[in-house]
Write a structure and sequence with these properties.
Elements lengths: L1 H26 L3 H20 L23 H14 L6 E3 H10 L6 H11 L6 E3 H12 L7 H8 L13
Antiparallel strand pairs: 1-2
């Protein structure tokens, strides 16, 4: 029993020493490494949002990622697919700032480069310069919940209400 207590004490001391060494090592991690880890976490979140996006070729539909299935009903999803496809002029499966700007012009609405840049900053989670299908859905949910303020022109363009004879509006 005495040797067991001594062994336990040695283990506790070793564990404490390792913890102190790990804390000291963490303090020495350069700031740029910490920032890179944060960016990777953001990219991972963005990948999770856009997972489930089918390639836009061959008439395939954009499926609703699992993350959004309880928040977006099938009828709403079909409206959003139309809006997304309308914005994605080049058929790349992503929406660029230039495509948003072009759609504003096509609809005869004033273009505001600063507002488009702000929209891209809050919507483009993976920072690739474009809004993916998952990022678009996230944007729509933010708009619906009032967590994002945009001009009426941008809301109309992003929700498909512009250039549509049916007058599609933000669902939900």
């Amino acid at each position: 029993e005495r040797s067991q207590r001594r062994l336990d004490a040695l283990k506790q001391g070793e564990i404490a020493a390792r913890a102190r060494a790990a804390e000291a090592a963490a303090e020495q991690v350069p700031e740029w490494v910490k920032e890179a880890a944060k960016r990777k976490a953001v990219r991972t979140a963005a990948d999770a949002l856009s997972s489930g996006l089918a390639a836009p070729s061959g008439g395939e539909l954009y499926p609703i990622p699992t993350l959004f299935k309880t928040k977006i009903d099938p009828k709403e999803a079909s409206v959003l697919r139309v809006a997304f496809r309308r914005l994605d002029k080049d058929g790349s499966g992503n929406i660029s700032a230039a495509e948003i700007s072009g759609m504003l012009g096509d609809c005869g609405m004033p273009e505001n480069a600063q507002e488009i840049a702000a929209l891209m900053a809050v919507s483009d989670l993976d920072r690739d310069g474009e809004i993916s299908w998952g990022e678009f859905l996230n944007l729509i949910l933010k708009l619906r919940r009032g967590r994002l303020e945009l001009s009426e022109a941008l809301i109309r363009v992003m929700t498909g209400a512009c250039g549509d004879a049916t007058g599609t509006v933000l669902p939900g």
